[in-house]
Write a structure and sequence with these properties.
18 strands; 293 residues; globular; binds uridine-diphosphate-2(N-acetylglucosaminyl) butyric acid; single chain; 25% helix
Length: 293
Amino acid sequence: MTWYSGLEAICRPDVPLREHTWYKLGGPARWFFEPRDDAEVAAVVARCREHGVKWRVLGLGANVLVSDRGFDGAVVRLTGAHFEEFRLDDPTVLANAGVDFTKLVRRACGRGLGGLENLAGIPGTLGGIVRMNAGGRYGEVCQFVRAVRVLEADGRIVVRPADAVGFAYRRTNLAGCVVLGATLELEPGEPAALLARYREIWNNKYETQPPVSERTAGCVFKNPPGRSAGALLDQAGLKGARRGAAEISPKHANFIVAHAGASAQDVLDLIALARERVWQHAGIDLQPEVELW
Ligand code: EPU
C-alpha cells in the first residue's frame, strides 16, 4: 500500500523536474501526478493533505527554479485532453488550466478576439498565468479574467468571480488553491491588426530581453513600487556577473541565464549576490518573482 493507493495510474515516482522547466535545472519530484480531470486533482490534493505530503502545481515551468535536491513532495501537472481544452465564444473565452497561454493568445487574435495580444511572449499555462497575474508593460491578465474555477483549500471546487481572486501586481490570493480554469472576456478586433500588434510586442521583447532559446525563468525579481528591478540591478553593476555557469544577462539585468553546466545553486548564488548588491547600492530589498522550489 502506498499513501496514494487508487491513484497509481496517474503517479510516477522520482521524475526529473529539469525536463519540465525552462531553466532545465534541478532535481527530481519525489512524486509526479498527472490527473486527468478536476475530480482527480481534488483527490490528489486531499490525499497529500491527509498524509502531510507537500505539493505544488507545475505549469510550463517558465517561472520556477527547482533546487538541485529536487522537490521532496508531490508535483501536480495539469495536462491532457481535459486540462488543455478551450473554447472561443465571442467575446468569452473558456479555458482550462493546462492550456498553453501563447497558443490561446494567438488563436484569440486569429479569431478576432482582442486584448491578449498585449500579453504576447509570456510563456506559461493559463493556470500559471492566472495564479501569478502574469503581465508586462502593456497589461496583465487580470484585465481580462471574469471568473476562475478553483479547487479551494477546503477541497471544494467553486467558480470565483474575478474580484474574489485578490488580483494585484504579480499576485493573487490563490496560494493553497489550484486554478482549474478561467473565463476571460475579450473585445472584438480585426485579426490582421491583432496579430500585427502581437508581433510588435514580441519583437520589442526580443530586442530588450534574452531570447526564449536561452535558459531563463523570465524576470527574477518583482519591480518594487514605482521602480524597475532591471534598472536597479543594472545600476548596481550586475550585468554579466557570474556564479558558476549562471550569468546575469548582459542584455537585461533582471534575467539570469543558465549556460551549459549550470546548477540551480549557481542561479541561487547569483540571486543572493544581486539582492545583496542592490541592497548596498540602493537600500532596496528586491523580492523574487521566480518561485523557488
Ligand atoms: N532597464 C535598465 N537596465 C536593464 C533592464 C532594464 O536600465 O538591465 C531599464 C529599461 O531601460 C527601462 C526600465 O528599466 O527604462 C524598465 O525595463 P523594461 O521595459 O525592460 O521592463 P521591466 O519592468 O524590466 C517588465 C516585466 C517583464 C515584461 C516587461 C515588458 C516585471 C518584473 N517585469 O519588465 O516581465 O516582459 O516589463 O513588458 O514586472 C516577467 O515577469 O518575468 C517579465 C520578464
